[in-house]
Amino acid sequence: MNERAGHNLGTAMPQSPEPQGRRRRQQDTQSCAPLPFWPRLLTIEQASAYVGLSRDSLLGYVADGTLPVTRPQRPNTDWAHRRTLANTETLRRQLFDRFDLDALVERWKRMG
To answer: What is the pLDDT of residues 13-22, one digit of tens each?
Structure first.
């Protein structure tokens, strides 16, 4: 045992004298950007982090019509006009509006 450190050899000393709770709180606030830095339209991964649910749970709300999805229109390019597929007006990417996510959370609060 290393008397000077007060620990067995091989264990690390705490890096700072801050209490454990304070350090954990700082890490939590750093893991999510403050609200003004979240974009208006979120990807599925961002939306699940924003609401705190899994990706599959959010897709379940989309499937049952509880949560609307935004699909941006395809840009007006020559490439888009040459395509003859039926679904050329919108992109395949599903984006979630922050305001729709906020409204969903508000509905949950009223129900619970």
So the answer is: 555 555 555 5
